[in-house]
Recover the amino acids of this structure.
């Protein structure tokens, strides 16, 4: 059975919407396989606008991995803006993929990648437009399996009503396992229907099916226990860990959209995981251990990716890029290789203490010295001990002095507000830090033409971190603290004009907090607020705090819990947390110990350079830290071909004009 | 103190190439900026030795002229490239066409031999398909429009809401009967009117949607579904543009580069 494109119906609507190009597909390196050539059809969704979703590395990787599999195809779908949503409803055009414009409801799996919880309402829009019942329990064999992944999938309880399954951790191998389970089940003639398929997935031990677990509550609202309700379903579901990044050099052919996206560059992931141990950082905690990609494979991916995309800039991605054991050789090798080609290299996520000027100079050899960004996160020395940032104010001042002394004119500093035990004084210390930064910068650079921007947002405690027990700071106090900081910076006559201040107010953080650490009862809030019109909650112009609070009031009306209960309440050690049956590898006792250490301002070193401190991941998951150096140099790489060789007019040689002299530019 | 842009060795321009390309099918929804990014990346992938500007953010020397609006197809878009080696225009055409997605099609590449290209683009020939509009209704509306001296329309431009005359620059406007869409899942079997319109380039430019806005104003012509618009050609306007086919109202703007 073939599946028809809905493009003819969609096309008539496109002249009526803004930025129609985001709905037409046509990206370079996109793949469209014939529907009938495979048995398992995946629709991959990044539940945000196309411009945000299309550069997402996770989706690009899985898209390619699945399309390489002989039994699978994958197409992509993104959230449509309200203008198109309205027209699609009026003209009965279903949620579609941008690759072949096939209706999402026709696929076997709808895989959603959640980098943030604020994409949940967009998932409901997509399900509804696709004709898929919102509730998993109302679906039958004709509907896709709705599968959540991404960091938010480490606590999918708040969307347990809407998803059939969730996968935690690295997706590369997991999607292939799932493909094979579905392929076999289909080949056998769908034995046992949808229930049997979900059971087979659950029994792999690496796919969480919420419907196969019962959650019991205590009268006071806390969870009594979470237990499987089918035989053969594991008590705890494990995350997935890819142990050899060199064996998975994806994306090999990065997608290049026609429409403008939020990342106009190519990205190459240089390692995965982080053991710096920042206590607020869910990404660092859930992606352990550190697994480096070798310098040789990184260089090949950069070279191959540039040739296939034509991008002008490459970002070397990871959670803390300067921590790669061969970063110096890598940066120098790549800078040598692309010297004079207008190709730029960037290193997002550089730690204050890992910055060194040689590295920064290599990356800016072609003269672009825009700005440097560091994230001290906490304003005071005490705060940084609480969060285990392991960076002193002296480190920071030394680093910015080096930067200003070497020609940089702009430094951006990221902070958080509302960290556990924080006081007004801790936050006001940020103004002092910024003053010292400018003071030092003016001294070492000999110019007043330097700037520092302070960027700050509210902290949201996340599952699977030592702060998972912490009470979140209420938005009123967060905003009051941010106002005091703003006034302190603006009121500084000597340096205030050189310091920029950007902040995010505390309200969206409360909704994010509700969705991050909530349980199954929060699903009713999501559904209610979506029915009331909530869409694109990650966008300030669409987000409505009042709508969320009103929906929560309705949904929690007859229950012992409310928004504060889920957000600002501190949890006890013995409380069953909604994600306790989801195994990120981290030992709950270790997390508690680290939480207590945090309160006593005790720091924990990075296990890459010190003995193991038993966070539990490697033991539990059978993994190990993989870091170099490998000692392999990049010298063996092939020399770049001379540009335009094949395009020359007869008799012409590159660099020596044969006919005319230079014409005026 | 102003920052000093780094002084770099930049290879000089030794040749200029002029391209005609088409924007077709679903890629008619690309904007000018979308095309610019796609072209610059295609140039890097094919290894065309582009000349770069100096400064903090060197960019390849490419000039874009008079691009068709987002959502309209075109058979006649023009771009000029500055390169640092003498290249074979036909090889560049083949390579770039292959590197751009289907729907952004490079049709011709010539070496620049004559100046003042922008001045050659005096007028455009557009074809506007109006599905589900009776040709007779369209004819009546067009007759009213053509009989008017001026028809003032409004459009939001970069410099705010502008009011301008959409009648004056219209050199000619013909109505044809198109093939009805086949009845079936997507088509309705309804009739289709086709407008052939020749518009002189003025500022602010009068675009096909301005002509349609004018038809709505003077004769209440409101197409039930969005129109499909294609620019067929742009170039120097012939002396008597009302004689012969609308397509012959302009001549090939690349002719001076070919002949000299």
């Amino acid at each position: 059975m073939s599946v028809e494109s809905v493009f003819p119906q969609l096309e008539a609507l496109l002249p009526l919407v803004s930025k129609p190009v985001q709905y037409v597909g046509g990206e370079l390196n996109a793949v469209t396989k014939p529907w009938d050539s495979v048995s398992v059809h995946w629709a991959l969704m990044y539940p945000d606008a196309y411009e945000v979703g299309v550069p997402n590395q996770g989706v690009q990787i899985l898209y390619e991995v699945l399309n390489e599999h002989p039994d699978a195809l994958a197409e992509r779908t993104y959230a449509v803006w309200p203008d198109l949503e309205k027209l699609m409803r009026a003209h009965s055009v279903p949620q579609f993929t941008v690759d072949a414009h096939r209706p999402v409801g026709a696929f076997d799996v709808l895989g959603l990648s959640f980098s943030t919880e604020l994409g949940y309402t967009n998932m409901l829009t997509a399900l509804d437009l696709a004709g898929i019942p919102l509730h998993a329990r109302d679906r039958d064999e004709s509907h896709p399996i709705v599968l959540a992944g991404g960091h938010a999938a480490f606590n999918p309880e708040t969307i347990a009503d809407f998803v059939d399954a969730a996968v935690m951790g690295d997706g590369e191998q997991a999607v292939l396992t799932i493909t094979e389970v579905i392929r076999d089940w289909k080949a056998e003639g769908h034995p046992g229907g949808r229930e049997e398929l979900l059971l087979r997935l659950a029994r792999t031990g690496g796919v969480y099916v919420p419907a196969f677990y019962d959650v019991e509550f205590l009268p006071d609202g806390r969870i009594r226990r979470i237990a499987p309700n089918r035989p053969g379903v594991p008590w705890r579901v494990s995350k997935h860990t890819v142990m050899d990044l060199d064996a998975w050099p994806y994306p090999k052919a990065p997608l290049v959209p026609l429409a403008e996206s939020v990342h106009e560059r190519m990205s190459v992931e240089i390692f995965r995981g982080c053991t710096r141990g920042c206590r607020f950082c869910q990404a660092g905690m859930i992606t352990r251990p550190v697994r480096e990609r070798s310098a040789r494979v990184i260089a090949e991916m950069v070279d191959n990716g540039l040739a296939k995309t034509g991008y002008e800039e490459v970002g070397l991605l990871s959670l803390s890029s300067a921590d790669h054991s061969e970063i110096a050789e890598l940066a120098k090798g790549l800078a040598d290789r692309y010297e004079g080609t207008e190709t730029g290299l960037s290193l997002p996520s550089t730690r204050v203490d890992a910055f060194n000027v040689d590295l920064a100079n290599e990356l800016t050899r072609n003269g672009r010295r825009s700005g440097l960004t560091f994230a001290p996160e906490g304003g005071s020395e005490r705060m940084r001990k609480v969060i285990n940032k392991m960076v002193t104010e002296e480190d920071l001042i030394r680093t910015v002095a080096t930067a200003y002394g070497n020609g940089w004119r702009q430094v951006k500093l990221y902070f958080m507000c509302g960290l556990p035990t924080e006081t007004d004084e801790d936050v006001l210390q940020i103004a002092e830090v910024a003053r010292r930064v400018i003071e030092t910068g003016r001294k070492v650079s000999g110019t007043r033409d330097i700037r520092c921007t302070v960027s700050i947002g509210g902290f949201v405690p996340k599952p699977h971190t030592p702060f998972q027990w912490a009470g979140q700071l209420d938005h009123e106090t967060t905003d009051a603290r941010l106002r005091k900081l703003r006034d302190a910076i603006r009121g500084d006559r000597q340096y205030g004009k050189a310091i920029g201040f950007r902040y995010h107010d505390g309200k969206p953080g409360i909704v994010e907090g509700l969705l991050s650490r909530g349980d199954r009862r929060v699903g009713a809030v999501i559904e209610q607020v979506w029915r009331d019109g909530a869409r694109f909650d990650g966008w300030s112009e669409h987000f409505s705090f009042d709508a969320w609070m009103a929906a929560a009031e309705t949904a929690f009306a007859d229950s012992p819990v409310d928004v504060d209960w889920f957000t600002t309440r501190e949890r006890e050690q013995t409380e069953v947390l909604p994600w306790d049956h989801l195994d990120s590898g981290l030992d709950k006792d270790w997390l508690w110990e680290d939480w207590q250490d945090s309160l006593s301002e005790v720091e924990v070193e990075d296990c890459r350079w010190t003995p193991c401190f038993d966070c539990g991941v490697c033991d539990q998951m059978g993994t190990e830290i993989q870091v170099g150096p490998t000692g392999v140099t990049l010298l063996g790489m092939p020399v770049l071909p001379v540009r335009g060789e094949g395009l020359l007019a007869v008799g012409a040689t590159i660099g020596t004009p044969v006919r005319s002299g230079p014409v005026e530019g | 103190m102003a920052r000093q842009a780094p002084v770099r060795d930049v290879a000089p321009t030794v040749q200029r190439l002029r391209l005609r390309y088409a924007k077709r099918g679903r890629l008619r929804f690309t904007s000018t900026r979308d095309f610019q990014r796609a072209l610059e990346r295609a140039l890097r992938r094919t290894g065309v030795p582009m000349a770069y500007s100096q400064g903090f953010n060197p960019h390849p020397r490419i000039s874009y002229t008079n691009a068709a609006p987002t959502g309209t197809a075109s058979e006649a878009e023009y771009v000029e490239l500055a390169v640092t080696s003498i290249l074979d225009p036909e090889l560049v055409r083949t390579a770039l066409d292959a590197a751009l997605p289907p729907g952004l099609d490079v049709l011709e590449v010539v070496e620049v031999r004559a100046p003042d290209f922008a001045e050659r683009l005096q007028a455009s020939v557009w074809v506007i398909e109006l599905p589900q509009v009776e040709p007779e209704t369209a004819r009546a509306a067009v007759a009213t429009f053509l009989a008017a001296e001026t028809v003032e329309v409004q459009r939001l431009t970069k410099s705010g809401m502008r009011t301008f005359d959409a009648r004056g620059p219209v050199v000619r406007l013909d109505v044809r009967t198109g093939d009805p869409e086949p009845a079936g899942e997507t088509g309705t079997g309804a009739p289709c009117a086709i407008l052939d319109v020749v518009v002189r380039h003025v500022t602010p430019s009068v675009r096909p949607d301005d002509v349609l806005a004018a038809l709505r104003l003077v004769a209440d012509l409101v197409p039930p579904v969005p129109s499909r618009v294609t620019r067929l050609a742009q170039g120097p306007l012939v002396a008597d543009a009302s004689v012969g086919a609308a397509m012959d109202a302009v001549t090939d703007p690349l002719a001076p580069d070919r002949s000299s």
